């Protein structure tokens, strides 16, 4: 039985806790949060211990692995601490706020002989899996273009304060929401990016970017455009894929739909269980990785997402495209 702890009892901690309960061979033994009541709300249904100091939890000998679900800039120190105690890690995206931190995390885990997997939930969402199955069948031919359009809410007060503190979060909508968009679009596109051009907006008096666009060219010449907009009239979360013979859209609120030569096909209809099922599948993937399997998301891919977020910030500031050096991602 692998004993898991959760560090950070925020918005998705409940999904992690339920997923742990649903997988044979896993048990939730500890939940840590600076707020004991918040930690207790996640821990209580499963009889897990409550901590307010993650170091105390790691030294207590109560966990074999942890899920790190904390503000982005804290990931590095927490991963290094877990590794030093021989504890495996599933760390939420983005992996880190700098490439240097990401490399330190990888090196610490490798030296300690523990597994680190970066939580990229898009790879486990049913509507994205249906999209990928269609692409892999070859029915659309080669992917030519992707448009990823997602709404968010970056009005001050709409989310915890740390999201608006760049020293803690690493940035605004790009590093938070954009990391999801980059992750799934690179996966769908099938290659790393070699060029990125971006622009950002700072609305609502927010100290971090609230909106923006990214345009990327992938190494296989797929064109990718990502648009992130705050406070839209209706929530938007759609990936549109243009192939040689047709198009596919995927939306977690609706499903996955394909159209070829005027004929529309429903590939997946979304259900209320899809999000929980994705978190459970991600935990099962992590459990398998600890036992020696290759994880669904590689460390190389996770680092490339960080690299692209940082390059997007560079491009937005300079007004110029940023060419990506291939050494990191090949």
From TrEMBL:
Domain (Gfo/Idh/MocA-like oxidoreductase N-terminal) ranges: 3-119
Annotated ranges, domain GFO/IDH/MocA-like oxidoreductase: 131-248
Molecular functions (GO terms): nucleotide binding; oxidoreductase activity
Transmembrane segment boundaries: none
Keywords: NAD, Oxidoreductase
Pfam (any one): GFO_IDH_MocA
Top-level taxon of origin: Bacteria
InterPro entries for this protein: Gfo/Idh/MocA-like_OxRdtase_N, Gfo/Idh/MocA_oxidrdct_glycsds, GFO_IDH_MocA-like_dom, NAD(P)-bd_dom_sf
Gene3D superfamilies: Dihydrodipicolinate Reductase, domain 2, NAD(P)-binding Rossmann-like Domain
Family annotation (PANTHER family): BCDNA.GH03377
Protein name per the record: Gfo/Idh/MocA family oxidoreductase
């Amino acid at each position: 039985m692998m004993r898991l702890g959760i560090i950070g009892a925020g918005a998705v901690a409940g999904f992690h806790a339920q997923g742990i309960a649903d997988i044979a061979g896993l048990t939730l033994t500890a939940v840590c949060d600076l707020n004991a009541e918040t930690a207790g709300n996640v821990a209580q249904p499963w009889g897990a211990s409550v901590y307010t100091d993650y170091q105390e939890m790691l030294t207590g000998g109560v966990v074999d692995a942890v899920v790190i679900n904390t503000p982005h800039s804290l990931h590095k120190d927490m991963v290094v601490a877990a590794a030093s105690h021989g504890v495996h890690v599933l760390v939420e995206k983005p992996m880190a706020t700098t490439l240097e931190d990401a490399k330190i995390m990888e090196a610490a885990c490798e030296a300690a002989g523990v597994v680190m997997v970066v939580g990229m939930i898009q790879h486990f969402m049913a509507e994205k899996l249906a999209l990928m199955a269609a692409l892999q069948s070859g029915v659309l031919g080669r992917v030519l273009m992707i448009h990823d359009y997602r709404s968010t809410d970056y009005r001050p007060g709409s989310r915890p304060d740390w999201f608006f503190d760049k020293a803690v979060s690493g940035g605004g909508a790009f590093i938070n929401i954009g990391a999801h968009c980059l992750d799934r679009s690179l996966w769908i596109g099938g290659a790393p990016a070699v060029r990125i051009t971006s622009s950002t907006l700072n609305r609502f008096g927010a100290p971090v970017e609230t909106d923006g666009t990214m345009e990327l060219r992938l190494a296989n010449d797929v064109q990718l455009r990502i648009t992130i907009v705050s406070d839209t009239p209706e929530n938007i979360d759609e990936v549109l894929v243009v192939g040689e013979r047709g198009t596919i859209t995927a939306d977690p609120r609706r499903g996955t739909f394909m159209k070829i030569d005027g004929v529309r096909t429903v590939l997946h209809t979304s259900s209320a269980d899809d999000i929980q099922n994705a978190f459970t599948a991600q935990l099962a993937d992590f459990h398998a990785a600890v036992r020696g399997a290759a994880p669904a998301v590689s460390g190389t891919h996770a680092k490339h997402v960080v690299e692209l977020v940082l390059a997007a910030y560079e491009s937005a500031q300079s007004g110029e495209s940023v060419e990506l050096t291939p050494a990191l991602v090949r």
